[in-house]
Amino acid sequence: MIPSCALVALLAAAASISDGTAAFQANVRPINAFLHTKNSSFKQPLSLRWMSAEVEEDVASEKATESSADFVPSSGKGRDPPFGTIMAANRAEIAVRIMRAATEMNMKSVGIYDHEDRYSQHRWGADAAYELTREPSATPISSYLDIEQIVKIAKEGGVEAIHPGYGFLSESPEFAQACEDAGIVFVGPTVENLNTFSDKTSARTAAIEAGVPVVPGSDGALKNAEEVTSFVETIGFPVIIKAAMGGGGKGMRVVYKEEDLVPAFESASSEALAAFGDGSVFIERFVDRPRHIEVQIIGDGTGNVVHLWERDCSVQRRHQKVVEMAPAWSLPDNLRADLHEYAKRLTSAAKYKNAGTVEFLIDSENRAYFIEVNPRIQVEHTVTEEVTGIDIVQTQLRIASGATLEEIGLIQENIQPRGVAIQCRVTTENPEKDFAPDTG
């Protein structure tokens, strides 16, 4: 636990550096209260330095001492713009982040926006932007879930690749398949990867098959109160109900006693249905007061996977991350090595392609349990970029274009963290409505 006074100080420090705005973070650099504990000289991420003439002069002397973040690829796939035009099929901070990567790599960017977002930065930051249409009764969010319309705009706009960002359609196998059918590259995992990992129950099965430890729980999704009640009778309380699809803390409830079980299931299922279009849930034994550690991985689809070390996301509110730190502080070295190995073993067996995060709970006795794979970029990817010097979004684009890890210079033994980076999320809540999330 982090004392409340320390957390307040941490948030204040982060706000003073990043100005507390996602737009600043995306448009300038994801600095997020960057703290050096060694080597105070900051190096630009590899992919930003490809544009610099001086890289050619100093790379030979740096290769022996620096991480892969300073390695300049020798092949064309690692140096040339991977695509001519890409679309950011998202909104706000992550859309701006994707567009920034496109500009840095000499590619054109296409944005999409709902009418309610017509003044947003992601509309004006793109080289071209198209307004999404919807029924008057539909919500603005529905625009960003309209696969048919998004793919149609991409085809008409000459888009070669679509980056889904996070949230919305980022974990949708249907969206990835629609892109593939239209001859457009989906910048993310394969359809098969998404079918395995976007559903937490199938991801759990894959982890068990790969020999990765999991929290005791249901083997598949539970669809009604009778199934939930019957299963919980076999493992006892406390339990945690989780949405089978999606993330972000939605569709999640902790239950300590029998009389609360069915109402919690109905509430979680309803929330999951509204958020992800699927009300299925699964149940696990609740691990009280755990550490939440996630391992950032990148694969090239051949079975070759590297990890970019880990992040500690243990400080949470309502199952949503508030503070993320890279690398994880005070993690025993043997446990850290185990987590890296588990993450690589699971994703390598699946021939995982592109960026992803493998998440674990660590109990009070330092036992690790797999909980899920997020098959997409995450909000907190920026802290990993800071300590490794590797631009994850640009790496995603190069992997999507067909480059291998070797071709872009990502060699496991060369990837070492330098310093510590912390990201703090500032959220708004309405105290008059039981502290429900608010727009500010």
Spans of at least 5 consecutive residues with low confidence: 1-6, 8-76
Q: For the residues shown, what is the average pLDDT? A: 84
Structural class: alpha+beta
**Order of strands across the main sheet:** 1-15-12-11-10-13-14
Largest sheet: 7 strands, antiparallel
Distance between the termini: 28 Å
Strand-residue proportion: 15-25%
Instruction: Please state the overall shape, judged from the principal axes of the Cα atoms.
Output: globular
Radius of gyration (CA) equals 21 Å
Give me the count of strands. 17
Tell me what you see in this structure.
The protein contains 16 helices and 17 strands. It is an alpha+beta fold and 440 residues long. It has a seven-stranded antiparallel sheet with strand order 1-15-12-11-10-13-14, with helices on both faces. It has a five-stranded parallel sheet with strand order 4-3-2-5-6, with helices on both faces. It has a three-stranded antiparallel sheet with strand order 8-7-9, covered by helices on one side. β2, α5 and β3 (108-113) form a beta-alpha-beta unit. 46% of the residues are buried. Mean pLDDT is 84; it is low at 1-6 and 8-76.
Quick structural gist:
By secondary structure, the protein is of the alpha+beta class.
Descriptive keywords:
440 residues; alpha+beta; seven-stranded antiparallel beta sheet; five-stranded parallel beta sheet; 16 helices; 17 strands; globular
